[in-house]
Design a protein that fits this description.
15 helices; alpha/beta; binds NADPH dihydro-nicotinamide-adenine-dinucleotide phosphate; binds the ligand O=C1O[C@H](COP(=O)(O)O)[C@@H](O)[C@H](O)[C@H]1O; 6-stranded parallel beta sheet; 18 strands; NAD(P)-bd_dom_sf
Length: 495
């Protein structure tokens, strides 16, 4: 819970000259100040190897705010809190100088030794930095020390376990904040509220009334300049292991007894433990992979994945995944959860569709058509809101029922005040609230689930490319649902 007002802290960003810091972290810190979530008693220390001065660093931070926040103001005061400290993080000797700078900033801003160490760097550095911070005494202050870790948290279960052991040698679990930025999105956080603050949904939220749940996260962008990273990842590890399985856990968990991070985590973990693990020889029955070839998006021709920079021209990396998940517990046995995510699809859209079971018999005429099923659609992005699909009488037409929609648009009301995911997560960490971060047990269970799929796929070359850029993935993805008598509900206007 965010109880502490305006926490005083030094935020140390490792990777301060990088893309993530520039695009997400600096604008988020700026918004936190504008929204009074932090006071004037804070400092940001940027670490990178580039030999920048404070002035150069501040100029770069300024540009990043200009690009992200059109109506920025009071920039000089804001930028005066930013300090740059260049060093190679693999060199233990450099940490003493950093320590001296942090102590100086504590004094300047009257900060009681509170430190947020944000790892916005490649994962291979996380363990080294954590150990050096501890060994050089940067974590033993009067205040709190928290470590924020970016994804990917490992590339499979053994590597995640190794990484976890390294950081746990320096930080306890309650000091570690593993980022999954989907957990910072307004409508992902709303899943719990929609379910547990509405008497009408919870009684129906089970296999007796829900036929299936569909989660789609489509992107129109390709891999852009991230080919090197993406080649070793693919959509399964990039999106399913983390964001998608977190959403599954929130949709399927039991009501927690309290809204604390421990109670919510414990319910999410039970779902992940109940996910039926696949055997390698079953993977092709439950999961489909795809890779985009050249195509066209919004009338613009785009290259195929294998033509992207830093991508192997014969790459076997999947840019699309669709899957059927089965949760073996009393609430969900028999109700499949279908997931799909991919790059170079027609539009950017993340949606959850909950399809309720059909009514027992149809009393209405409907031109011989069957009744449209009730759907609850949770729109995560770009529109934020919920849509409930019902059937209602068609005016003046005796016994004809037609589908109607009840719409709630979250960002139409909250407008530009809906905080960006990173802003929310940095705020939570500053306030010591770990609810919307992933804990080790969740990470281990999700890796364990996807590792079998990755292993099955790595042993057989796929027939790629198998979908054209600008389409909703390969035909096999539709067949996955058709086998069960379902189809994907459209999530974009063009689908
Ligand atoms: N960019 C994004 O949108 C997203 C990124 N992430 C994750 O965030 C992390 C950072 O990504 P991103 O910002 O894109 O990466 P970049 O490659 O853009 O930045 C890497 C940063 O690390 C610094 N660095 C590299 N080696 C050293 C070293 N030995 N000592 C000190 N600093 C060093 C670089 O500084 P310099 O060059 O000055 O040495 C630079 O600031 C990764 O884990 C990535 O997976 C997660 C989600 C989205
Ligand atoms: O973590 C990642 O997420 C983005 C998608 O995030 P969104 O907030 O834009 O939906 C994805 O593009 C990227 O490949 C992945 O690393």
């Amino acid at each position: 819970m965010n109880t502490e007002q305006n926490p005083k802290a030094v935020i140390v960003i490792f990777g301060a000259t990088g893309d993530l810091a520039k695009r997400k972290l600096y604008p988020s810190i700026y918004q936190l100040l504008q929204n009074n979530r932090i006071g004037k008693d804070f400092a940001v220390v940027g670490v990178g190897r580039r030999p920048w001065t404070n002035e150069e660093f501040r100029k770069n931070v300024n540009t990043s705010i200009e690009n992200a926040v059109p109506d920025h103001k009071e920039m000089d005061e804001f930028l005066s809190h930013f300090h740059y400290h260049p060093f190679d993080v693999t060199n233990p000797e450099s940490y003493q100088e950093l320590k001296g700078l942090l102590e100086e900033l504590d004094h300047t801003y009257d900060i009681p030794g509170n430190r947020m160490f944000y790892m916005a760097m490649a994962p291979e550095f996380f363990g080294t930095i954590a150990i050096n911070l501890k060994n050089e005494g940067l974590t033993s202050t009067q205040g709190w020390s928290r470590l924020v870790i970016e994804k990917p948290f490992g590339t499979d279960l053994p590597s995640a376990q190794k990484l976890n052991d390294e950081i746990r040698a320096a930080f306890s679990e309650d000091q570690i904040y593993r980022i999954d930025h989907y957990l910072g999105k307004a409508m992902v956080q709303n899943i719990e509220v929609i379910r547990f603050a509405n008497a009408i949904f919870e009684p129906l939220w089970n296999n007796r009334y829900i036929a299936n749940i569909q989660i789609t996260s489509s992107e129109s962008l390709g891999v852009e300049d991230r080919g090197r990273y993406y080649e070793s990842s693919g959509a399964l590890k990039d999106m399913v292991q983390n964001h998608i399985l977190q959403v599954v856990a929130l949709l399927a968990m039991e009501p927690p007894i309290k809204l604390t991070d421990e109670e919510i985590r414990s319910e999410k973990v039970k779902v992940l433990r109940a996910l039926r693990p696949l055997k390698e020889n079953e993977v092709s029955d439950y999961f489909v992979r795809g890779q985009y070839g050249k195509g066209s998006i919004r009338n613009e021709d785009v290259p195929g994945y294998r033509e992207e920079s830093n991508v192997d021209p014969n790459s076997n990396t999947e840019t699309f995944v669709a899957g059927k998940l089965t949760i073996d517990n009393f609430r969900w046995a028999g109700t499949p959860i279908y997931i799909r995510t991919g790059k170079r699809m027609p539009a950017k859209s993340t949606k959850i569709v909950v399809q309720f079971k059909d009514i027992p018999m149809n009393l209405y005429y409907n031109n011989g058509d069957s009744m449209h099923p009730n759907l609850l659609v949770i729109n995560i992005q770009p529109d934020e809101g919920i849509t409930l699909h019902l059937n209602a009488k068609k005016t003046g037409d005796g016994s004809y029922a037609r589908p109607i929609k009840l719409d709630y648009c979250n960002n139409c009301i909250d407008g530009i005040n809906t905080p960006e995911a990173y802003e929310k997560l940095i705020d939570d960490c500053l306030h010591g609230d770990a609810t919307n971060f992933t804990h080790w047990d969740e990470v281990a269970l999700t890796w364990s689930y996807v590792d079998t799929i990755a292993k099955a796929w790595s042993s057989v070359a796929a027939e790629f490319p198998n979908y054209a850029a600008g389409t909703m993935g390969p035909a096999d993805s539709d067949d996955l649902l058709a086998k069960d008598g379902y189809h994907w509900w459209p999530v974009t206007d063009t689908e």
